[in-house]
Amino acid sequence: MGILENLYKMTAIQDIIGNPGYLLMLAIGAFLLYLGIRKQYEPLLLVPIAFGVILANLPGGNMGVVPSNLIELGEGHTKNLLEIAHDHGIMNFLYYSLIKTGFLPPIIFMGIGALTDFGPMLRNLKLAFFGAAAQLGIFTVLISAILLGFTAKEAASLGIIGGADGPTAIYTTIKLAPHLLGPIAIAAYSYMALVPVIIPLVVRLTCTNKELLINMKEMDKKYPSKVKIKNLRAVKIAFPIVLGIVVSIFVPSSVPLLGMLLFGNLIKEIGINVARLTEAATGSILNTATIFLGLTVGATMTAEVFLDFKTIMIIVGGFLAFAISIFGGVMAVKIANLFNKKKINPLIGATGLSAVPMASRVANDIALKYDSSNHILQYCMSSNISGVIGSAVAAGVLISFLQ
Amino acid sequence: MNQMGIAFELLGVGMITVFVILALVVILGNGIIMFVNKFIGEEPKVQAVDSSSPVVTINPQKLAAIVSAVSNVTKGAGRVTNVEKQ
After folding, report:
1. Any bridge partners for residue A72, and if so which?
2. Taking all residues of chain A, what is their mean pLDDT, rounded to a whole number?
3. Residues A10-43: pLDDT tens digits?
4. Are residues B4 and B39 in the same domain?
5. Which residues of B touch A147 (CB under 8 A)?
6. By the 8 A CB rule, do A135 and A325 touch?
7. Do the chains contact at B15 and A136, CB–CB below 8 Å?
8. Region A195-222: what's the mean pLDDT?
9. Is residue B60 part of a domain?
10. B residues 9-28 closer than 8 Å to A (CB)
11. Residue range A47-61: mean pLDDT, rounded
């Protein structure tokens, strides 16, 4: 009988019976895995996050991320990494070394930069303005969240979901409200996966058929651009260097994200001479960073932290931030069309939030439904890529004001 | 300042900053394009391969070694544009 009792104590059964929240979290983890594997919602990140949720909620596994007060020793001192690994397990070692330090999001941004082509934006520079208008959701949801009782730092972390950029949302939350990291990362990546649903919804509510029929190629023929690029490769190499220096002067707090994005882009544009660096940035480094980011963010979602009213508010607020950002971009195009002869399809404004290149593909599909000759992908990519810069700058503003 | 005051200030400062930075993107982009158009000029065009000439396959490892050697000797200034067997 004593042996059976010892065996029972060794298992996690009594912990699960004692706290049914574990079972609910395991179900949430399984549901997220279903979304990632079966529905293919951002599987590269949702699958590691979901598995991290499961690992964190296996009682006795010691894989859940512990609150930062447990690693603080008082008087501004914290446990060192060896002590964290010894006392709280390897997941906390990974979290406090790679996430809490803000290391991984910029590394992921470097990979994204090396996968990004600024060419469409450089060919249609004026459309980059719509990437600014589409950051409206960040700041309006920030105000709403404060009205609902969030602190300014928590509200900023919630609002940044409207930037539709996973690493930016994670980086901002690490800096401002790390206790909300799990739900905010889940909301950000889930809504990015739902871009094919959210953009058509907002466009249907805000645009007329006449506006959606505006053919960008015909507009280009009627009103051709005065500036021709003679040497696109040279422009693409100079652009990240000059932009990086200038932006760092105006918004220094955006440099960790934007600087790494532009460095990644620079090595891509240099080409064959640094091909090995580009290969590493877009391959092994990006993939490794993605795995550790996903698992550790998932591991922050323990039952005690996630099963909270704020989580529901974050899910609802995140959706609103997304929708308002798309609305902001669409409205900016409508206002521009009032003053310009050369009309712009409002779908281009809708892609001003990040979510590259999915937002552009969705907008292009909508345009083709209305006019099968209206291929607007290249135009959408302009505002879409500028949206990445815009959301990183918005994050920099929030961090420098609130940290 | 109360929380709402900070929120409205962030709305103003944040949106203005994002617009200013993206305006800089447009201005800098145009500036770089004009500079490159004026001082660097057109990209050298890749010559089309003459289909009448016999196609000679070169071992990629040998080609990489040649490119690397030229780059080393010329300190990065030289470029291999064509390799032909005699």
Report:
1. A78
2. 92
3. 888 888 888 888 999 999 999 999 998 998 888 8
4. yes
5. 4
6. yes
7. yes
8. 94
9. yes
10. 9-11, 13-15, 17-26, 28
11. 92
Amino acid at B37: N
Count structural domains, chain B. 2
Angle at A245 between CA A240 and CA A247, to 5 degrees: 90
Helix boundaries (H) for A161-308: 166-176, 181-193, 195-206, 209-212, 216-222, 232-250, 255-270, 275-282, 284-299, 303-306
Cβ–Cβ below 8 Å for A135 and B14: yes
The amino acid present at B27, given as its one-letter code, is I
Same domain, B39 and B62: no
The residue behind tokens 């990015």 is A192
Q: Would B72 be classed as within a structural domain?
A: yes
Residues B39 and B1 in one domain: yes
Cα separations in angstroms, A101 against A44, A81, A223, A259: 23, 12, 50, 17
Question: Which sign does the torsion angle of CA A348, A354, A360, A365 carry?
Answer: negative
Q: Could you tell me if B33 and B1 lie in one domain?
A: yes
Q: What is the pLDDT of residue A357?
A: 87
CB A364 within 8 A of CB A348: no
Does residue B48 fall inside a structural domain?
A: no
Q: What are phi and psi of A369, to 5 degrees?
A: -65, -35
Q: Is the preceding omega at residue A105 within 30 degrees of 0, hence cis? A: no
CA A67/CA A49 separation, integer angstroms: 18
Write out chain B residues lying below 8 Å of A229, CB-based: 33, 36-37
Residues B36 and B5 in one domain: yes
Look at residue B30 and tell me if it is in a domain. Answer: yes
- Contacting residues of A for B46, CB less than 8 Å apart: none
> Looking at the predicted structure, is the pLDDT value of residue A314 above 60?
yes
| pLDDT the model gives residue B75 | 67
Within 60-79 of B, beta carbons closer than 8 Å to A belong to 71, 76
Per the structure, the complete domain to which residue B76 belongs is given by: 55-86
- Could you report the predicted ipTM of this complex, rounded to two decimals? 0.85
Angle at A169 between CA A164 and CA A170, to 5 degrees: 140
Cα distances (angstroms) measured from residue A36 to each of A29, A32, A333: 11, 6, 34
Residues B2 and B39 in one domain: yes
pLDDT tens digits, B27-85: 999 999 999 999 988 877 666 555 555 555 677 777 778 877 887 777 666 777 777 76
Angle among Cα A7, A13, A19 to the nearest 5 degrees reads 145
Q: What is the mean pLDDT of residues A119-125?
A: 93
Measured on CA atoms in the order A312, A160, A168, A175, is the torsion positive or negative? negative
Enter the DSSP assignment of A223. S
